Amino acid sequence: MEPITVVLIGAGMRGMIYTRHATDHPHELRVVGVADPDPDKRARCREVFGFDETHAYADWDALFAGPRIADAVFVCTQDRDHYEPALRALQAGYHVLLEKPMSPSWEECVALERQAAESDRLLAICHVLRYSPFFRTIKQAVTDGRIGRLMSIQHNENVGFLHYAHSYVRGKWRRSDESSPMILAKSCHDLDIMLWLADSPCRSVASYGGLSHFDETHAPPGAPTYCLDGCPVSDTCPYYAPNTYLRQEVGWMAASVSADTSYAARYAALRKGQYGRCVYRCDNDVVDHQVVSLDFANDVTASFTMSAFTAHTSRTLKLMGTEGELRATMASNEIEITRFGSGRRELVQLTDPGGHVGHGGGDARLVRDFVRAVRQYGSHDSLTSAAASVQSHLMAFAAERARLERRVVPLSEFTAPLN
Questions:
Q1: What positions does the domain Gfo/Idh/MocA-like oxidoreductase N-terminal occupy (predicted)?
Q2: What is residue 165's DSSP assignment?
Q3: Helix, coil or strand: residue 320
Q4: Cα separation of 124 and 132, whole Å?
Q5: CA 239, CA 160: separation in Å to the nearest integer?
Q6: How many domains does the chain have?
Q7: Domain that residue 250 falls in
Q8: Rounded distance, CA 245 to CA 261, Å?
Q9: Do both 302 and 158 map to the same domain?
């Protein structure tokens, strides 16, 4: 059986993670082209996958100007560049795997779902958590009635102080007008998981939160714009840039600073680059903490907390049912079920744990399921198809409206105009 062929649009970190499946499983997936404005990224992609230079495009306009060259495209651009290439790919007859969020506009999210149906093409969204063994095990426990009827969900996204500072203060997702609001850019994963677990449409949303710490009013006295310009609290500040980006071991955060990951290149990039800035003197505007309350049509209630102010990056949750409760921590793959009455506690062992890295194993499983869905189009649907993902996106838009307007927002405000 021939592998599914794909063109990568946006050859950044996420795009190269998803296309890694082609190197690990070449009999399932083959990358035959790339569209990216960065010549270094195009060259790297060609080097990894070995396709002809004629299929290395500087933009998606050039890709779509010619005949279709693959079965599918992976759209892994920045948030505000998701809609147009995904729409044009569907119109050109490609199946599409689209990085979340679908779009910073709720109308465009709905338009993409409708275009997929009109084009009779698969549009799958990268809600990778649904594929992780951790959340699949939790979902199965709820489906099997191991805590009785699910009544309440408490879910925490512990972003981690360094992760937040890197991505949402200094990084590409720091401003909602350049990417999307935090609840959409980061936490649409979590709203999607709560929708999946509740297994019922969401009726209304309330939300509170804001940017309360990472601004100039909290800068230490004398702190310069750039950490390397003689910061007076460099020995004690947990966000001092050289401590994050100039370590001997180059991790994913340090790799974001410079394409050349040598110490000298990273040091030079911190001198006047975005990742070298004091976290209290950036141009960020996305929230650093937020809570969301959700009411589902089957009377399940849920609360979600996103916070930058955590020591570690992890997701933790508690599910409360009529016959028991479930507590879980993703980073350690700990799932515990307690039954009422007997008090019996059961630790659920994952046969294939993934932890936090690779979204708990969800990244690879998402791509494998996409390949299967393309092969068996019409008989096998993606777990994260656009039809399944649009509502959790609308929940995120409702949460942001609720936060800004400080009121309860019914989902009908978004769904009624569609009818």
A1: 4-124
A2: I
A3: strand
A4: 16
A5: 12
A6: 3
A7: 221-276
A8: 10
A9: yes
Angle at 360 between CA 354 and CA 362, to 5 degrees: 115
Q: Which is nearest to 101 in space by CA: 11, 158, 173?
A: 173
- DSSP classification of residue 260: S
Q: Are 192 and 282 in contact (CB under 8 A)?
A: no
Q: Are strands 301-307 and 150-158 parallel, antiparallel or unpaired?
A: parallel
Domain CATH number, residue 185: 3.30.360.10
pLDDT by residue (tens digit) across 306-341?
A: 999 999 999 999 999 999 999 999 988 999 999 999
Tokens representing residue 373 in the block: 């869905």
Q: pTM surpassing 0.90?
A: yes
State the Cα angle at 131 between 305 and 34, rounded to 5°.
105
pLDDT single digits (tens) 7-51: 999 998 899 999 999 999 999 999 999 999 999 999 999 999 999
Domain with residue 25: its CATH number is 3.40.50.720
User: Helix (H) and strand (E) counts for the chain?
Assistant: 15, 15
- Average model confidence (pLDDT) for the chain? 94
User: Considering just the CA atoms, what is the radius of gyration of the chain in Å?
Assistant: 22
User: Could you write out the DSSP letters of every residue in 177-215?
Assistant: TTS--HHHHTTHHHHHHHHHHHTS-EEEEEEEEE--SSS
Q: What is the mean pLDDT of residues 353-374?
A: 77
